[in-house]
Amino acid sequence: xxxxxxxxxxxxxxxxxxxxxxxxxxxxxxxxxxxxxxxxxxxxxxxxxxxxxxxxxxxxxxxxxxxxxxxxxxxxxxxxxxxxxxxxxxxxxxxxxxxxxxxxxxxxxxxxxxxxxxxxxxxxxxxxxxxxxxxxxxxxxxxxxxxxxxxxxxxxxxxxxxxxxxxxxxxxxxxxxxxxxxxxxxxxxxxxxxxxxxxxxxxxxxxxxxxxxxxxxxxxxxxxxxxxxxxxxxxxxxxxxxxxxxxxxxxxxxxxxxxxxxxxxxxxxxxxxxxxxxxxxxxxxxxxxxxxxxxxxxxxxxxxxxxxxxxxxxxxxxxxxxxxxxxxxxxxxxxxxxxxxxxxxxxxxxxxxxxxxxxxxxxxxxxxxxxxxxxxxxxxxxxxxxxxxxxxxxxxxxxxxxxxxxxxxxxxxxxxxxxxxxxxxxxxxxxxxxxxxxxxxxxxxxxxxxxxxxxxxxxxxxxxxxxxxxxxxxxxxxxxxxxxxxxxxxxxxxxxxxxxxxxxxxxxxxxxxxxxxxxxxxxxxxxxxxxxxxxxxxxxxxxxxxxxxxxxxxxxxxxxxxxxxxxxxxxxxxxxxxxxxxxxxxxxxxxxxxxxxxxxxxxxxxxxxxxxxxxxxxxxxxxxxxxxxxxxxxxxxxxxxxxxxxxxxxxxxxxxxxxxxxxxxxxxxxxxxxxxxxxxxxxxxxxxxxxxxxxxxxxxxxxxxxxxxxxxxxxxxxxxxx
Length: 722
What we know:
Strand order of the largest sheet: 3-4-2-1-5-6-7-8
CATH architecture of the largest domain: 3-Layer(aba) Sandwich
CATH class of the largest domain: Alpha Beta
Number of domains: 4
Mean pLDDT: 90
Helix content: 40-55%
Low-confidence stretches: none
Strand content: 15-25%
Number of helices: 26
CATH superfamily of the largest domain: Glycogen Phosphorylase B
Radius of gyration: 34 Å
CATH topology of the largest domain: Rossmann fold
């Protein structure tokens, strides 16, 4: 993946600075990183996979055009996979526009500026207007990365699993951890580090300094202030007006090594910010064993435990702030406790490698597909569609986000990155089709920024309903269809789809250049042979699975069993499956009468519909699986039997090519009960050695060509190629 990043930190040109070191590390995770930065530099810098492009513009208004121009130029030479911006506002808007143009993923950083923070909103009227821009960008970002715990909670509540906690741990943090503390000095050094901007509440900082220096105590107090920004002149003016110069050492900036030395001689870090993420100074102070007195901002909970390793005060509580500072000055034992605790807590929770590891996770996440799945039922215990629960589980492994819309929701596992939305059939029996339709359009529109592609399972009507909208939104549409019938709705759905997935050529009989034959999806980790469950008595165990429907042709099987009974073969047949409508219920009554008529009542068990977990045990225990289905599509139940090492006999034309090598044993003519009886008897008489070889070959066919894990991977890859 090739990445474009926007930056405003001109320190990135300094090879020893954290910004450069971090970008260099990030570049090792991808094919390339191109950093675009407005600065006074003129020379392009390149170091392996990292390239830094300095840009110049006459005013801020023209910056988006320069970003777009530079990005499009880069896109001529390589495919851009993602665009990373440093905020959800100006840079976020530029990143969003470029990501849309290049069809790339958008990563938005929320460090310090959280648009939902009340103090940020109150800061200016323009912020209240920018708030709506920020909402627009964040809702359309593929990934949001933030560092403050409170920010993360807020953002996750609003935007879900696409929000990542990524603290920016300084690369030289070990130098701070190695600092040896010397608390018993004559001068108590208080440190403030930060940009001199409104966010840092510089007027409150001045009041703190005035309050501390005004109080008479035995120990001398000295402040070090490091930082630059638009409020620098205000700060210096306040220092002069209040005659604070003797108490303050002010520096605009310091080198990395100087910062370590300053932390080494300091005994307390103070923060007066109105809002803040997990600021770098929090980490440096904690690693150095420096207690902190801070206003309540998002980043404090990342490391501070109030009254255990530092103090946290509410915004504007000047008296409380001063009292806490003097507690630490006047109580050395409390200072020792806080110093030891905060360093220990930091070392236990954080490592320099954490940032790069989380960035790797983000790049892996964004490289994966975000998928909308639409199916009829999600219920692990459903007799017919229970298998799809395992499909969703596999999709969740291959996709960063899965949004699943189903008509009915039953028992299911809760996967971390899967959001399940029901159209309401499970909890509202009186809901009509208008209600289902309303929810369907509500969900596909509301979730439009959370999926890149659509996978519709076995119901082409959803493609017809949503196809036009998905096409307008640029979502690729895939339809899974495995059935011999060709309804008119299938013709219309074919127009909207980008890809039609099917298990075999016989399973989709409409002529189309969109067809992709993928094989079926059998979970070969679940459907496995188990010799311990095999019965060793003289009764032949037969099994068939499928809906109780005329198309399954159960009467042919029953008549073949009657023939086997005449031949003196002892057997037991289990039929798993139930009727789904009135016609099928009448067919079940007919089968029961036929069983009595053929004197098979003692040999045939009608078990009804069973969950997949129970079906597996029957497949593992019986000797022969029989399928009389006339649908012409690749029957999943037959493949599941093969995966369990169970010999199968079928008349389904879709299996002729698959079972060609074993056709004399396993394929019979439709509705030919005598031929079916011959095939069953032939398998029953087969030696154990030959039967073991046959079963191993049948399972191998499923593992190689109809494995669920391989199927899902192929489906995801197919969206990329279309």
